[in-house]
UniProtKB/TrEMBL annotation:
Organism: Micromonospora humi
Keyword Cytoplasm: no
Keyword field: DNA-binding, Phosphoprotein, Transcription, Transcription regulation, Two-component regulatory system
Residue positions, PTM 4-aspartylphosphate: 55
Protein name, UniProt field: DNA-binding response regulator, OmpR family, contains REC and winged-helix (WHTH) domain
Length: 233
């Protein structure tokens, strides 16, 4: 039997937690469990799992608050597994740093597939690069840090993922549909306005605007391109 990963399942409902634990272990994962948000936070920091599966309806704190607390201290991948299927809520949690989102009811096979996909993305990103450099921009994926001309730039988790995706394709026009699929993990549906708002925030933090772009160039009706400013070429 393969041991794919060390997982932490944060789920308060025993009728869900017990069969999921059994099934994920049968898939070869080493799985620990917590029934509260604070217990999950403690276990995540003490045991350093490869991935956290997070329910939102926890008895002591909302799972979204636990996600925020985790992201303040850890880059551990998080798959949110919950009954909440509201698109606004899904986007909010992905913006807050969740790596994927699975709506109940789901099968253990579906969860296992999502876990393996997230871990593949994490392993590929960490193994193949230390930093991306585009002009004066340096994006360090492992440390999740960005500097512009040597000065640190404070980004939210989703802003970082958006910038990193664009920086991996310098000079190429990336469509908003691709960004929703690859950065927000919303392959169907989703609003272009979500991308527009985050691009606006990102431009502000990079000291530019849509009217006076330096790195981020909008291609009307197509998407956005990240490129080296003329003076840096």
């Amino acid at each position: 039997m393969r041991c794919v990963a060390r997982l932490l399942l944060v789920e308060d409902d025993l009728t869900i937690r017990t069969p999921l634990l059994r099934a994920l272990r049968e898939y070869g994962h080493a799985v620990a469990a917590a029934s509260t948000a604070l217990g999950g936070l403690r276990d995540a920091l003490d045991d350093r799992p490869d991935l956290v599966v997070l329910d939102l309806g926890l008895p002591d704190l909302d799972g979204g608050e636990l996600l925020r607390m985790l992201r303040a201290v850890s880059a551990v991948p998080v798959v949110v597994a919950t009954a909440r299927d509201d698109e606004v809520e899904i986007v909010r949690l992905l913006d807050a740093g969740a790596d994927d989102y699975l709506v109940k009811p789901f099968t253990a096979a579906q969860l296992d597939a999502r876990v393996r996909a997230v871990l593949r993305r994490s392993a590929t990103g960490g193994a193949t690069e230390t930093a991306l450099v585009v002009g004066g921009l340096r994006i360090d994926r492992r440390a999740r840090q960005v500097t512009l001309d040597g000065v640190p730039v404070e980004l939210t988790p989703r802003e970082f993922d958006l910038l990193h995706h664009l920086a991996g394709r310098p000079g190429q026009v990336v469509t908003k549909r691709e960004l929703l699929t690859e950065v927000w993990r919303i392959p169907y549906g989703g609003a272009d306005k979500t991308v527009d708002v985050h691009l606006s925030w990102l431009r502000r933090k990079l000291g530019e605007s849509a009217q006076a772009p330096r790195y981020l160039h909008t291609v009307r009706g197509v998407g956005v391109r990240l490129d080296v400013p003329e003076r840096n070429r």
